[in-house]
What we know:
By secondary structure, the chain is α/β, with parallel strands linked by helices. It has helices at 4-16, 71-81, 92-104, 117-132, 158-161, 172-175, 186-195, 221-232, 251-256, 282-285, 304-319, 322-345, 370-373, 378-390, 411-430; strands at residues 38-42, 45-48, 53-56, 110-114, 136-140, 178-181, 200-205, 235-239, 262-266, 276-280, 350-354, 357-361, 393-394, 403-404.
Amino acid sequence: MDLSKSKALFERAKNYIPGGVNSPVRAFKSVGGHPIFIKSAKGAYLQDVNDNYFIDLINSWGPMILGHGLEMIKEAVYEAVSNSPSYGAPTEREVLMAELITSMIPSVEKVRMVNSGTEATMAAIRVARGYTKREKIIKFEGCYHGHGDSFLIAAGSGAITMGEPDSPGVTHGVAKDTLTAPYNDLEAVSLIIDANEGQIAAIIIEPVVGNMGCVLPQHGFLAGLRKLCDQHGIVLIFDEVMTGFRLSKGGAQELFDIKPDLTTLGKIIGGGLPVGAYGGKREIMDMVSPQGPIYQAGTLSGNPVAMAAGLAMLNFLNQNPGVYVQIQKSTQTIVEGFKENQKQLGIELTINHIGSMFTLFFTNHQVLNFEDAKTSDIPKFGQYFHQMLAKGIYLAPSQYESLFVSSQIGDLEIEKIVTANKNSLEAIFSS
Ligand code: HOZ
């Protein structure tokens, strides 16, 4: 496969962009080689600058749930942009968006639009702190909530693979207010709360983790957190930047039937454009400026073009729940195919899977938390990644990420993915 143009672009980029990329995971550092530069995408396929085609199993880290190049998104964007791309003043689309989000996620009674998931999580903990008048937060090892200072403690995603889960530049003062517990360990959370009675403002969690690979909450874990938060007056924040509108119309919280106090959203609500949002209980959200004293603002928040794309996406998902059934079925078929491949090859690897998210871990250990995820054989994952890439399948370039299936992945693509998986595993494990 000719990747020469990507290689050349990466060399140029490294002169002017730190590490040659605008987000670390993309640099392929943990799998080796150089990133693939994309020039276009349609349906289930990405086209790179050398005109290679790849079946996309990242889908912009989640939001392209309906695949790429959708006419309805393009039309919405063209229509919005034909006026002015930004006013810095309220528009009707923001009202429509707030009405839609609150109707699809009932725990969100009021919502504030921002520009990314990172902004959403940073604002959510500020609001939780202002509301409770407490300073500490609890997060989970291997969970990633964007690059806000408070979250770069035992952080997942690129922070793991770049070897900096506790980033330099985060002050001791900030770090001491972030307490961490292992995912799926209710007892550890309870002990932390007891040791810091009356000081915990919020527990923030990915209700289904995407950022240490896909990791599922064990039965009773989320309900247990809800109970602990109620008992101790702690704000429960679900970071649904990846799972919102993906695992179901109402996100992971609908699937597991747990209502958080605050929810953070991102990616998908911009239909691929840069958007985030945070929202939740009226009583808490009414603390946000200008209604309340907790300050948070942004000129591009609720941007008309992003709102137009997001409205097209969310309206479609709201009116077509069959999409969820379809992508879950496709993902199930892929996962079953992978399991069958392993059986035939006599290999035992762990696959975590829920809805249209899944991760193949290069370990036979069950993966319930970050320590488990770290038992994965990372060099083997790197080999697998490149085997799959050479066969035209574009995976997340890190073991510690989830894969995302879109509705454009049909029988033909499923067959290609499953066959590529078999041939890739065979090549790795027979050498
Ligand atoms: N942190 C994102 C996934 N967990 C990756 C973002 C990107 O590189 O686009």
